[in-house]
Write a structure and sequence with these properties.
There is one protein chain. Helix 7 links the parallel strand 7 and strand 8. Helix content is about 20%, strand content about 15%. By secondary structure, the chain is of the alpha+beta class.
């Protein structure tokens, strides 16, 4: 990539980066004002991901719900977090707002308040940034003959920021070094699995050239959030790829899911990351040797479900990823047996499931991941999915779920050099 192209991209992204900077600066200031409480030692740092389903139907509705401490779902989500006590937490499906009010209210009214006797937990360091969900593209991306609506947004959503993300941390976030990849174009990925219109003879032609000139790879965003663990920086690589369903024979969501996962596989591989550029114009992937933890709802099970075969394995089988200990739970095994349906024919071990989906299809799946670099030793791991006989089962339950259809997944890591 030439320096001229890099400068042009930097100029085009200037307004976007300014918006992220405002949010990051506000959250960083809150972090400086409140020292972290009760950190676990640097040799046992717990990273977690939780698709908490804190998404709402209308812009501002999540802020309204979190403005008081009595929202039942938010209470259940907060109690799960208080019971598992992650040090670094990614929350998927947390609606974005530019002022960062929702994450502030969630901390103030829920996490900082004891839920059913659980100890409050403080996250003085937080990061939120825009999501592609609900941002109109101006094109007929689903090819249904009309322009507008959630399917024609850069990421599925009824309003900008729906289904967004938030990072909560008890350790300082290095805000100056955060990289976001919201604007990275799908067509700029070498060998991109661009969807094909099966009604034509031309290959990879579901999207027109004009659409591909603006189509973003991330259905939400990809973030590289550096966390300072007592002097050693660990990069939290977080995202939430689109579900590989809700499309047609062209498999536009399945192919996008695959390449959203592949982005991190390339980002951490020095020989395959030269093509990558971030929203500020920076080029390339992760610095060689840098510690990382890949986290998020990847919407891909390694054996079952509707994702393209091999999607999850792009990370699970990556030569730099530590997958020696897979988070598991007894509750997932119990529910797969009780619910039956598609679960009875699954190839994957149900103890590794992280989401309770429809029994008929696709059944319960492993879609949520916390995957560290091999240099980070896994000390322990788990999935918060209690047995039905456990008093805490009330926090997950069955449909309609008291918290979310996903389960919090955590991995405790030893961070050398911290």
């Amino acid at each position: 990539m030439t320096m001229t192209l890099a400068r042009d991209r930097k100029l085009r992204r200037a307004a976007f980066v300014a918006g992220v900077a405002v949010v990051a600066a506000t959250v960083a200031q809150m972090g400086r004002a409140s020292p972290a409480l009760g950190k676990s030692g640097p040799e046992n740092v717990r990273f977690a991901t939780f698709n908490a389903s804190l998404n709402r139907n209308f812009a501002g509705q999540l802020i309204d719900d979190l403005s008081t401490p009595d929202n039942d779902q938010a209470q259940a989500v907060a109690e799960i977090i208080q019971r598992t006590r992650p040090d670094v937490l990614l929350i998927n499906e947390f609606d974005f707002d530019h002022e960062g009010r929702a994450d502030d209210l969630f901390q103030q009214n829920y996490l900082s308040v004891s839920q059913n006797g659980a100890a409050p937990i403080e996250y003085p360091y937080r990061f939120v940034a825009p999501s592609n969900t609900g941002i109109p593209s101006g094109f007929d991306l689903d090819n249904n003959g009309s322009v507008g609506g959630p399917n024609d947004a850069f990421g599925f959503g009824f309003f900008p920021g729906q289904y967004g993300m938030a990072v909560f941390s008890r350790y300082p976030i290095v805000h100056d070094d955060i990289r976001t990849f919201q604007l990275f174009l799908w067509k700029d990925m070498p060998g991109a699995l661009l969807p094909d219109d099966p009604s034509t003879e031309a290959p990879a032609d579901w999207y027109s050239p004009s659409e591909l000139d603006v189509f973003r790879l991330s259905s939400k965003s990809h973030w590289d959030v550096p966390i300072d663990i007592s002097g050693r920086v660990v990069h939290a690589l977080v995202s939430h790829p689109t579900p590989p369903v809700f499309d047609g024979a062209e498999d536009r969501n399945g192919t996008r899911n695959y390449d959203e996962i592949r982005f991190w596989a390339d980002y951490i591989h020095p020989a395959r990351s030269d093509y990558i550029y971030d929203d500020g114009g920076g080029e390339g992937g992760l610095e060689p040797g840098a510690p990382f933890v890949i986290m998020g709802d990847m919407n891909s099970d390694p054996f079952d479900g509707d994702s393209i075969p091999g999607s999850a394995q792009l990370l699970l089988d990556h030569p730099l990823v530590n997958n020696k200990m897979t988070p598991a739970s007894d509750g997932a095994v119990e529910q797969a047996e009780l619910q039956g349906g598609a679960n009875a024919s699954h190839e994957g071990d149900p103890k590794f499931d992280t989401a309770d989906f429809a029994d008929g299809a696709p059944g319960n799946l492993r879609v949520d991941y916390v995957l560290p670099r091999k240099s980070l030793r896994i000390r322990a791991s788990g999935v918060f999915w209690p047995l039905s006989s456990d008093p805490l089962f009330r926090l997950v339950g069955t449909f309609p779920f008291p918290s979310s259809d996903h389960r919090l997944v955590w991995v405790a890591l030893r961070v050398p050099g911290s």
